[in-house]
Amino acid sequence: MTLAAATNENLANLSNTLIYSAMAVYTLAFFAYIAEWTFGSRSKVSRTAAALTGDAKGAKKDTKKAGAPEVTVKKAGGTAVLERPKVVTRAAAGARDVPDGPGAHGGDEQGDLYGRIAVSLTVLAFLIEFGGVLARALSVQRAPWGNMYEFNITFSTVAVGVYLSLLALKKNIRWLGLPLVTSVLLDLGLAVTVLYTASDQLVPALHSYWLYIHVSTAIFCGAVFYVGAVGTILYLFKDSYENKLAGGGTPGRFATSVLERLPSSASLDKFSYRVNAAVFPLWTFTIIAGAIWAGDAWGRYWGWDPKETWSFITWVAYACYLHARATAGWKGRKAAYIALAAFACWLFNYYGVNIFVSGKHSYADVG
Amino acid sequence: MSTTETGKRSAARDDDSAVRDDNELGAAGSQLSTAPREDAPNLPSLGVIGWARWFWRQLTSMRVALILLFLLSLGAIPGSLIPQSGTDEMKVEQFAQDHPTLTPIYEKLGLFHVYSSVWFSAIYILLFVSLIGCIVPRTWQFVGQLRGRPPGAPRRLTRLPAYTTWRTEAEPEQVREAALTLLKKRRFRAHLAGDAVAAEKGYLREVGNLAFHIALIVMLIAFAWGQLFKSEGNKLIIEGDGFANTLTQYDDFKSGNLFSSDDLNPFSFTLKDFKGTYARTGPNRGTPRIYEAAVTYSEGADGAEKKRTIEVNEPLKIDGSNVYLVSHGYAPVVTVRNGKGDVVFSQAVPMLPLDANVTSSGAIKVLDGYTNAKGEKEQLGFNAFFVPTFAGAGQGQMLSQFPAPDFPVLALSAYHGDLGVNSGLPQSVYQLDTKNMKEFKDSKGELFKQRLLPGETMKLPNGAGSITFEKDIKEWAGFQVTQQPGSGWALAGALAAIFGLAGSLFIQRRRVWVRATAGPDGVTVVEMAGLGRSESAKVPEELGDLAAILYETAPGAPDPDAEPETDAKASEAEPEPDAKVSEAEADPTPDPQAVPAEGAEQ
Ligand code: HEM
Known about the structure:
The complex is a heterodimer of chains A (367) and B (602).
Chain A: H1 3-40, H2 47-52, H3 57-67, E1 73-76, E2 79-82, E3 88-89, H4 109-140, H5 148-168, H6 177-193, H7 209-246, H8 253-260, H9 265-298, H10 306-324, H11 333-356
Antiparallel strand pairs in A: 1-2
Chain B: H1 3-12, H2 17-25, H3 47-59, H4 62-81, H5 89-98, H6 102-108, H7 118-147, E1 162-168, H8 172-185, E2 189-193, E3 196-201, H9 204-229, E4 231-238, E5 242-244, E6 252-255, E7 267-278, E8 288-299, E9 305-311, E10 316-318, E11 321-337, E12 343-348, E13 352-353, E14 360-366, E15 379-387, E16 409-417, E17 437-439, E18 449-452, E19 457-459, E20 466-483, H10 487-506, E21 510-518, E22 524-532, H11 538-553, H12 568-573
Antiparallel strand pairs in B: 1-22, 2-3, 3-21, 4-6, 4-20, 5-7, 7-8, 8-9, 10-11, 11-12, 11-20, 13-14, 14-15, 15-16, 16-17, 16-18, 19-20, 21-22
Helix pairs in contact in B: 1-2, 4-7, 7-9, 8-11, 9-10
The structure holds protoporphyrin IX containing FE.
Protoporphyrin IX containing FE (HEM) sits between chains B (33, 35-36, 60, 62, 65, 69, 127, 130-131, 134, 209, 213, 216, 504-505) and A (319, 322-323, 326).
């Protein structure tokens, strides 16, 4: 065995170690998020009901604060004069005016502390996992997207990266942490057991700079679609909760405790719309890049190969979702169901097609 | 938009918040997009024309477009799960054998060619008719909006999603003038309408959206065009041989309905060398690492010769034709001699690969020039198996162990007689038709056959001659030459679609109104409000920025009253601007949220 091959093997082993370590740290982060939710539930928060049942004054003030941009107050010469006038915002006609929840910690200090610990652990795990992906890439001397094991580890790294970037941009999405880390653990578990593939180089059909473009954007889109789908599911829960309250019902204590702390259904809906809409053009680009690559590699741009077909189905499904949001009678829950169906198509394209359907793309070998 | 229409629509769909906005805001909230209006499904009693119009309205409505999109994605599913004859004919046959009852039903439903089936075509054709029926009126409407002016301020600005107000010593005209200048500088389309400035921005959103939908049509037409005029042919070339792009040179060829052979681009190329290396170790042992064909080519009938290598992902692109490297195999060079030792055949004979390790089979046909031991003219035929890496003698079958020529072996069995190539029936060059041929026999009376290493010679029995497997083993490469006009248009459409989509999704179309009126105490009241398509955080933010700038030109005046915020009573007590100038006064219950700026934060 040559020296280079030995180095590569060492790197591949290092990569595996890092991935396992990342899983360990994600597990710690998982427990920290659980602690955040648990401690947060001690505090009493029930602002939704207040907002929905007439006694709205207090809650509404909160919305104003949350919705309106920061206003700087400067005192000039003793008299209070605003440097800029305050903008008041108002929900669109017909929309519920419910304040956003305080987040998983529910305003509880200890909960908040655990939340911060959880985020720090997530950052750490992210860095370790990133190292693992990098080592894998170095060991095979190419981008780490040659088979499903590599897709999976890259995919979860990117999903966590998206989450952490949004946090860094000061978006109110720490509530996403628990579901995200849970599924990252599932994803990695699947990767290291069922999907594990020893590191190796690529077949020439995968040698193309279009691969780098096509696969990297596909993974990125998937990660963002995933974040959008989590938002959509939480929207559906929160929306039923608000509906129940508005209809005079009393939701269960667990539901109340969890859902009270999430953003309002309107905010969640907007969040998932923005996320999905933002990556839809990139997904369009991904498919086109794939077609160009297929044109170069297989002599035809589009051949209704199962992978191509399911990318197309996913694309049309997301187009449906965007359309539904502009169609009377289809906004809200119905559109949300379409968004989830679209994500299910994406998932099927990713796992289902690779595993159950054979086609030209089946080099993403499993096992 | 007429008021009666608005009324009718809101009655039909009052779950639609946009319509409610329309109701409350009047014309101000209308036409923020060019989306088709949702009609109530009131069934017409108007005869044929009425029905036709109703049908057209339905077809071009957002709801039906949505349903058609939905059907399109559902309809695409079966084609990914059931084998398709366009992609894999063998699998279809396999399926037909396994499911004798299902197959005729599937055939009737066109499920073996979903993407060209009647029902799938119907879905996308309807969708595109709907699309055109949607784009044309939307384009006109948009042109109308561009030629018109942003709608004037609604009566009650407090009803809008973003609102701010303050009192100032500046004159109303002055404020309006400043607002107009400011908004224009910020690239709003702004004009003065009554006591307020009306402004709008973000028209590119609509441009993007229309461009996206038009691009979809361009792409569809480009694909259809490409299907009708495309051509696709295959050619196997041995190292050293050449190819000129004419119909007769292809091994096989298919083309679209409107293709004519004059459409073939003139060019030629020669395969100089094929180079393949393969993974020696690891889980992907045997998969190609390097896989490329070095060629020289010339464009046109007699262009200058140029050099290139063609790789799997890098076709040779000549003037609308693409030359792809699609397959590869070996062509052992053999020399056949007659009984006297004269060479009657010396050629590289391509063998067709049977598996991933390039176990190959083929036929060697000596058509003329051979005379047998008795001096009679005859033809010779050899069935050939070739393996680039032999397992070793006694290791069973002629199955190659590796794709590279590490241990090449050629196995031959010999026939003589009539090859039947002149019978008029087309014959594969890779197969021997032994109907009119006799086997050479070995000493035991069996078919005469032998395994040869490079350089070895097989002597035919009874002085019938010999065949030599030369040391020089050539390789061949299979090329696919395709021509698909319209792919440039498809690409242009795709790019336009992406940019249009980005414009449509990232640009906000929004309106801003600035009203300045003199209050009864002579102090000017400035009100600003913003409205976007959706509740975007950007609209209030932008309004805040604009207000801050305007506030510098029209600074706040101290409020004579104490706390204007508190509640409805206090608001009512608040001095209202003159009834003649301000419509705000017509509002008996001012919105409690409409908080005057000053004093809001103590
Ligand atoms: C070929 C099928 C179609 C596809 C893939 C498609 C895709 C899309 C997408 C992705 C959007 C989102 C952009 C945005 O939200 O601004 C959109 C918006 C829109 N589409 Fe389509 N569309 C199709 C057909 C149609 C048809 C037939 C109509 C006519 C009824 C239509 C009318 C619209 C309108 C009015 C919007 C803008 C909605 C808004 O203003 O938010 N589309 N379309």
